[in-house]
Amino acid sequence: MAPASSSTHSAITLNINGEKYPLSVDHRTTLLDALRERLDLTGTKKGCDQGQCGACTVLIDGRRAVSCLHLAVAAEGREITTIEGMAEGDRLHPVQQAFLDLDGYQCGYCTPGQICSAVAVIEEHAAGWPSAVTDDVRPEAGPPPLTAEEIRERMSGNLCRCGAYVSIVQAVARAAEAHEETTKEASA
Ligand code: FES
Ligand code: FES
């Protein structure tokens, strides 16, 4: 049966990790609460619930977004990727593998958000997007070297209360190198 709509609720279909999820939501429901409380996709974490910690980061149309500040109704028709959609079967996403190999976590609570952010950071960097610490922001300069400073700045929206930052930076750097290699091989 199709979910009901009213003046306070809307019937929407969310496209998450390639699957369609029809549901009726109160218009005030955040995407984070829809994921966790309605759809049992609890990989996405709630930290501050006010856009300050990054624990709830997901990808919307490939761009990172803090799902606690995004209304579920506004996410209809968009491609949403959560941590549950990163791996391909038993094969971890290269960013997940790098976090695992380099201990890019301690308690793991911030890790899904860190990984979603890192996936987008690597794409943004490869596309030549500058950051606040990029010296030469001219388009013709191309992507800046992905130094630890660049990674720290680009990942600065994701807090880690355990302070696993050193390993997180190493994991992002390794995954970015792997991404560059794969891109080179694909275009050779
Ligand atoms: S829970 Fe969304 S930014 Fe902290
Ligand atoms: S690993 Fe514990 S908060 Fe980041």
From TrEMBL:
GO cellular component, one term: periplasmic space
Keywords for the protein's UniProt record, in alphabetical order: 2Fe-2S, Iron, Iron-sulfur, Metal-binding, Oxidoreductase, Periplasm, Signal
EC class: oxidoreductase
Known pathway: Alkaloid degradation; nicotine degradation
Catalysed reactions, as listed in the record: an aldehyde + A + H2O = a carboxylate + AH2 + H(+)
Pfam families for this protein: Fer2, Fer2_2
GO terms of molecular function: 2 iron, 2 sulfur cluster binding; carboxylate reductase activity; metal ion binding
Enzyme Commission code(s) on record: 1.2.99.6
UniProt cross-references to CDD domains, sorted A to Z: fer2
Subcellular localization, as worded in the UniProt entry: Periplasm
Predominant location category: periplasm
This protein's record includes keyword Cytoplasm: no
Domain annotation 2Fe-2S ferredoxin-type: ranges: 10-86
Assembly, per entry: Heterotrimer composed of PaoA, PaoB and PaoC.
Primary role: Oxidizes aldehydes to the corresponding carboxylic acids with a preference for aromatic aldehydes. It might play a role in the detoxification of aldehydes to avoid cell damage.
PANTHER family found in the cross-reference section: OXIDOREDUCTASE WITH IRON-SULFUR SUBUNIT (PTHR45331:SF2), OXIDOREDUCTASE, IRON-SULPHUR BINDING SUBUNIT-RELATED-RELATED (PTHR45331)
Name of the molecule in the record: Aldehyde oxidoreductase iron-sulfur-binding subunit PaoA
